[in-house]
Amino acid sequence: MSEKFNVMLIVIDALRADHLGCYGYSHATSPTLDALAADGVLGENLFAPAIPTQPSFTTLYTGQHPLTHGVIAHGGEAMLAPTAPSLAEHFLHGGYHTCAVDNLWRARPWFGRGFVDYLDPSLKHTLPVAVTCEEMNDSIIKWLRVFGADPFFMLIHYWDPHYPLLPPPQYRGRFYDGRNPTDRGNHSLDRWWQHPVGLLARNTWLRTPAGRITDADYVRALYDQEIRYVDDGVSSLMQALEEMGLSQRTLVLIMADHGASMTEHDIFFEHYGLYDATTHVPLIVRWPGHLPAGRRLPHLLRANDVAPTLLEAVGLPAARGMEGTSFWPLLTGESDEGGHDWVISLECSWQASWSLRTREHKLILNRELDPCRHFWPSRELYNLQKDPLETHDLAQTETHLADDMTAQLEAWIAAGAAAAGLPGDPVAAQGITLGRRG
């Protein structure tokens, strides 16, 4: 490809796929994202190999599984090797002006690798997650007005709808029926008020002058309001691209680092647990004139596939060491063959767990008793076709299948650990990080 085009990678933190209209959600949370999906390609089954934010973003940046790059926990001690592949560095070496609008460099230095410009509009906030969509877009648009004529790769990290769930006043009240959210007769949050995780939420944004919130639907509505807020922010950004004449020249890929559980599995408004509410993330790709409109991909994809896909899209070779598989031929319609038979995910922040997910089933291995008092068993098995919400654990009844999937997962972990030069399973060795550090 002789002519260089732009790539804009937008990561919306904590955005679960099934709360978007284009994935079948009933509330009007995402008109802009729905329109972009209709004008481009939607991936129905993109999954995060690691949660939460730090290991997930590292997986995205390197194109490697976390067992390979070693950053398996949020708040862990592992540092990314300087020899690990870097998506931004590869774009930079390919002649692109690279820019990140983000603040993850404040947590780990490798998130700044390869970016000529790193804009952090959250610096004036005590909490990085407090940065607003307006502040983000102001930084993005100012940069584009100066450098948008050059081929660029831009990474944008919107923090909404990550908690605390504090949507702007003009979004309050949407998606909620107006009943009293502090009704003492509503017990849907009783377990949350007894929960050891989320003290900040219980003492701050889940309290009102009328008392503490008791209705889980009210908090779910706050999450949806935050989604609509960031959706409007994306709308403003897309409008700016159009006004600057950049829409036709810019591939836009929108995804999330992880989702968020509302109340499923007694996980309240957080993003841990290797269930689909947290590991299944959106994938929307729009590039007018280059990608077909309205195409949907049912293929099983992994977040570490994104980096090689973006590189192939603009004619750059995949970086050495990237393990992901480009799904560019799927996006263009050149091929309907691709994707994976399974996805392996891990976490050891609030949980220390592994999962093996196929189209039909999911196995979860819990390596350590968690600090959140869920008392989950050491092994869980779900039939995703019959039980997509993962409510009926079959590990005790479908023992042959559970044993087979356990053997497959344990063999993969052992082989990956050996290839990485590790003495054994790093999740079991490191255990829970955030649960111990508070």
CATH class of the largest domain: Alpha Beta
CATH architecture descriptor text of the largest domain: 3-Layer(aba) Sandwich
- CATH superfamily of the largest domain, by name, is Alkaline Phosphatase, subunit A
Estimate the mean pLDDT confidence: 91
Oligomer: single chain
Helix content: 25-40%
When the domains are counted, the total is: 2
Shape: globular
How many helices in DSSP terms? 14
State the end-to-end distance.
50 Å
Number of strands: 15
What structural class do helix, strand and pairing data support? alpha/beta
Radius of gyration: 21 Å
The string of secondary-structure elements, in order, is EHEHHHEEHEHHEEHEHEEEHHEEEEHHH
Major β-sheet profile: 9 strands, mixed
Low-pLDDT stretches: none
Assess the beta-strand content as a share of residues: 15-25%
Layout of SSEs?
Elements (H helix, E strand, L loop, with lengths): L5 E7 L18 H8 L2 E7 L5 H10 L3 H4 L17 H7 L3 E5 L15 E3 L13 H15 L4 E7 L31 H4 L5 H5 L3 E2 L2 E2 L3 H28 L6 E6 L20 H4 E2 L1 E4 L8 E8 L3 H8 L14 H5 L10 E5 L5 E5 L3 E6 L12 E5 L15 H21 L6 H5 L3 H4 L1
Parallel strand pairs: 1-5, 1-8, 2-11, 3-4, 3-5
Antiparallel strand pairs: 2-9, 2-10, 6-7, 8-10, 12-13, 13-14, 14-15
Helix pairs in contact: 5-8
Protein architecture, described:
- The protein is an alpha/beta fold and 438 residues long.
- It folds into two domains: 6-170 and 219-340, Alkaline Phosphatase, subunit A, CATH 3.40.720.10; 344-437, Arylsulfatase, C-terminal domain.
- The chain is built from 14 helices and 15 strands.
- The protein has helices spanning 31-38, 53-62, 66-69, 87-93, 133-147, 190-193, 199-203, 216-243, 276-279, 306-313, 328-332, 399-419, 426-430, 434-437, and strands at residues 6-12, 41-47, 97-101, 117-119, 152-158, 207-208, 211-212, 250-255, 280-281, 283-286, 295-302, 343-347, 353-357, 361-366, 379-383.
- The strands form three sheets. Strands 1, 2, 3, 4, 5, 8, 9, 10 and 11 form a nine-stranded mixed β-sheet that branches. Strands 12-13-14-15 form a four-stranded antiparallel β-sheet, with helices on one face. A two-stranded antiparallel sheet has the order 6-7.
- Strand 13 (353-357) and strand 14 form a beta hairpin.
- It is globular.
